[in-house]
Amino acid sequence: MPKSLYERLGGQQGIRAVAHAAVDNHLRNPVVGVRFQDSDVAKLKDLATAFFCAGSGGPEVYEGRDMRTAHRGMNVNEQEYLAVMDDVVDAMRRHGVGPQEQSDVVAILYSLKGEILRV
Ligand code: HEM
User: Of the residues 53, 84, 108, 110, which should be mutated to test ligand 1's pocket, given the most ligand atoms within 8 Å of the CB?
Assistant: First the structure.
């Protein structure tokens, strides 16, 4: 059996490290930082971790809002979307995620675009 993306990312521990670093990147990213100024950062990090664990084949249950509901009314644009993806890629690089896993994650994030952009 080939390993799941969850396993290849180092399970919950590996995904948590990347998710936390990605959210930290968003907070200081001039393109999107302002979007998160009223956020409960610890909660957002937990939700981002659970979302990616569940979405990559892990046993965790994601109990946050679905992507369309979470981003409804924000009017997120392409530039912001790219900024968020870049933040995730940077976080993966810093945490030693391999090139194949980086591409897999980018493909998943890109596939969510229609649920997040200008919904
Ligand atoms: C790349 C795809 C993205 C994924 C996978 C993603 C994932 C998530 C998740 C899991 C949540 C938590 C849902 C909840 O609160 O129940 C969330 C909330 C949020 N996201 Fe995204 N997101 C993405 C892109 C974006 C973009 C491009 C922006 C705009 C800059 C954005 C801004 C926000 C904000 C402001 C919140 C709410 C934070 C809060 O309620 O405190 N997201 N996102």
Answer: 84
